[in-house]
Amino acid sequence: MRWTIKPKPKQEDIDVLANELQVDDLVAQLLLQRGIDTFEDAKKFFRPQLSELHDPFLMKDMDVAVKRIEEAIGNGENILVFGDYDVDGTTAVALVSSYLRSYYPNVATYIPDRYEEGYGVSYKGIDFAEDNGFTLIIALDCGVKAIEKVAYAKDKGIDFIICDHHRPSTILPNAIAVLDPKRQDCSYPYDELCGCGVGFKLIQALGSHRGETIDDLVYYLDLVATAIGADIVPITGENRILAFYGLQVINQQPRIGFKAIIDQLNKKELTITDVVFIIAPRINAAGRMKHGQYAVNLLTETNMAQAVKFAAEIETFNTDRKGLDKAITEEALVQIKENDEEEGFTSVVYNASWHKGVIGIVASRLIETYYRPTLVFTKSGNKLAASARSVKGFDVYNALEGCADYIEQFGGHKYAAGLTLLEEQYHNFKHQFEKVVKETIEPQLLTPEITIDTIITLQDLTPKLMRILKQFAPFGPGNMSPVFMAENIKDTGYAKGVGANAAHLKISVVQQDSYKIDGIGFNMGDKLPMVTSRKPFNAVFSLDENEWQGTVSLQLKLKDIK
Question: Which residue in 536, 535, 543 sits closest to 559, CA to CA?
Fold first, then answer.
């Protein structure tokens, strides 16, 4: 594990900001490292305002999209809301469909079958639209590369509005409107929205024509916050505002579908981390194990008894998913060893029987063992389908572009992508992908990195600091939870392994004359010998709170020790 300490801002800048905000140097430093260097920036950071959301009509084609939807409603046309089967797609479909249905009845939803249709806009979905008299499809979280499919729909008299956030090709589909802040010719001020975020901008624009304000749309932000967390987009700018208020909705007035999940949890307040690790996997499990429509049904349900039934089904899918991804990960690790590929620059594995719904999770799991760009393939119809995952700092999408000769179709972004290819091209692709990564990756990127905000003493860790750090939330890419390093700390003799097989490390440490503070290191049980000898060691951690029998105390959430 590499430890990298962020550069310290200039002391004079720290002094100015600390004085302006009336905070201590440590807080000022943490803010400056996040690009917050004025009182005004700090105000926006700590007190996000819905009024600061951008005008949706700044997005290219938004005016055209709104006009076409209003036309469809005026003509009594049937509208099909189409979206991908993951969390971003299903939340986006739930959001746009439930908004439209609040004032117009002729709206249906369509989530493609992961196995029969694959990712994104499908011919089967377009045929379904034709057979059932739909003349307008609103595609969410997909579609920006669906050139042939949009043309196919046009031939059938079906119009498309695309709401996407993936990188487009040089040619755009011939849709009525293509809403994508990553379009080269789109000057929208923020280009890191998720698919559900683009869907929200669409309903914001539609609402403004109906005399609605942002306050009328807050109800939908629980869906947007969930998608932001699950899709790992930066929690900066507009995303920060949407996530901040979306979390409030989740905690105060969640929709019935969320409430059915949350009521099973023993938690008073959910953070974005809880959304990512508790709510999102359950929604995802529907598309992975059965069908994404289950997730849409749960998220749009208004009857509690029915929602509880849907939530129970999805819980079963999630339990099955956990068992599957564990088993497939073990098989993939054996395959890497048997192929003598432990030392390569990439991990590329394939088994025709692996469940397509979990190969993305398996790819992430493999990176925990072999830290390098990873692809997991399985059979999908007459082709092979793969999920790609990357390591910090390496653009896997660009690497796939270097293998385009062997790929049928691919899409995604820097850290995650999906692709299909013909089985006879598998070995050619595998060889080429290894070659491209070997030639382009910087060697240090193959060692996991912990980025440290600053070195502190245990004396600095106070309840007041914790209260301020809580206001830095919601955390995520672009605004990670602050990470600290403390040097020459010693265990008090308490250290022990806890949990099944003593997998986790529990410590209680001091530093010179400091007070004692507890720490927990998940999956760090193997580090116990490093701390039991009372020898000083260095630790990297984030600051956390531990609640036990009604008492709340500070604790170190360990990331690594040396």
Answer: 543
State how many domains the chain has: 3
Same-domain status, 219 and 259:
yes
Of 529, 468, 474, 557, the residue nearest 29 (C-alpha):
468
**Does the pLDDT of residue 364 top 90, yes or no?**
yes
Residue 42: inside a domain: no
Tell whether 199 is covered by a domain: yes
Q: Is residue 468 part of a domain?
A: yes
Beta strands in 351-408, from DSSP E residues, in sequence order: 374-380, 383-389
| The pLDDT value given to residue 548 | 80
pLDDT bracket for residue 318 (50, 70, 90): confident
Distance from C-alpha of 128 to C-alpha of 259, rounded to nearest angstrom: 32
Judged against a pLDDT cut of 90, whether residue 381 lies above it is answered with no
Helical ranges in 102-175 per DSSP H: 123-131, 147-155
Residues 217 and 125 in one domain: yes
Q: Are strands 517-521 and 504-510 parallel, antiparallel or unpaired?
A: antiparallel
At which of 390, 416, 445 does a domain end?
Answer: 445
Percent of the chain with pLDDT over 90: 82
The tally of CA atoms less than 13 A away on the side-chain side of residue 10 is 4
d(CA 519, CA 218): 38
Euclidean distance between CA atoms 383 and 145, whole angstroms:
19
Average pLDDT along the chain: 94
In this structure, the answer to whether residues 280 and 205 fall within a common structural domain is yes
| 266: pLDDT strictly greater than 80 | no
Q: Report the SS3 class of residue 113.
A: coil
Mean pLDDT of 549-555: 87
Q: Which of 226, 217, 166, 232 is nearest to 195 (CA)?
A: 166
Above 90 in pLDDT, residue 121? yes
Q: Residue 351's pLDDT is what?
A: 97
Residues 125 and 263 in one domain: yes
Same domain, 496 and 395: no
Identify the three-state secondary structure at position 233: coil
pTM: 0.89
3-state secondary structure of 408: coil
Is the pLDDT at 547 greater than 90? The verdict is no
Q: Which pLDDT belongs to residue 556?
A: 97
Is 361 inside any structural domain?
Answer: yes
Q: How far is CA 362 from the centre of its chain?
A: 16
Both tokens of 314, joined, read 């999805």
pLDDT surpassing 80 at residue 305: yes
Residues 143/93, Cβ–Cβ less than 8 Å: no
Same domain as 463, residue 430: no
Phi, psi torsion values for 411, nearest 5 degrees: -165, 165
Averaged pLDDT for residues 215-230: 96
Question: Is residue 350 within 8 Å of residue 370, measured between CB atoms?
Answer: no
Decide which of 413, 445, 477 is a domain's last residue.
Answer: 445
Length of the chain: 562
Q: What is the pLDDT of residues 155-178, one digit of tens each?
A: 999 999 999 999 898 999 999 999
User: Residue 547 belongs to a domain with what CATH number?
Assistant: 2.40.50.460
**Is the same domain home to 189 and 284?**
yes
CATH number, domain containing residue 308: 3.90.1640.30
The reply to whether 288 and 150 lie within a common domain is: yes
Q: 478: domain range?
A: 2-6+450-561
